[in-house]
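Input.
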Amino acid sequence: MSSAFGTQFTDTFAVAYFRNGEWSAPQMQPVAPLPMHPAAHVLHYASSCFEGLKAYRREEGNPVVFR
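Output.
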């Protein structure tokens, strides 16, 4: 029997830190709450989850892009 997508989780996850312009080596850690600053961009605009652009060509032939 299969379960619904996104309902089965592992007990560990990989964590890496970005400091001084570089990513650290990833480390496996037990699943735990993620500390996040309240001003994190993802909480305000969700652009970290989805960033989409749509483009289409107008009758005049020039492209139009919108977000």
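The chain has a mean pLDDT of 83.
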